[in-house]
Amino acid sequence: MPTLTGRTPAEDAAIVPTADLVGDVEVELTLLGRHAMHSSQHTEDRQLDRSGYHLLGRLERTPLSLKQLAEAFRLDQSTVNRQVNALQKAGHVERIADPDGGTALLIRPTTAGRRALRRDRDVARSQVARVLGDWSDRDVAALHRLLRKFNTSIEGLEGTPWPRS
Question: Which structural domain range is residue 147 located in?
């Protein structure tokens, strides 16, 4: 079955990108990171900073210990502890005993934390929707497919399927 390029998946996989193409992609990824930081994180409509948004997004799946969060984000445990403390001070997370009897405390979102995450996610999604407003469904689907492929390639190289199950 042909892909959007008109080639089969096997034909697409056999194409090795040139250094120029890889360089072009790197530039666009750099710009994407810059645009994402400037457009979505720096608005008064958002309640959470970038780290809080990501931590709560991970914790909404299941409570985790500081060590588990540090491993998931590839950060020093003291860095994650500072970020969690800020979330806790704002009333967005709480520390709880491990229901499985482990010795480490687990961190989980509070009702206020889940509400802030939902609100910020709605703001972020509305900003993305504005950017994609004049795109066709086909183009949006192609972007999604390629971004997912890119991210799963990173996850495969790192040996970590997180945040996907």
Answer: 134-165
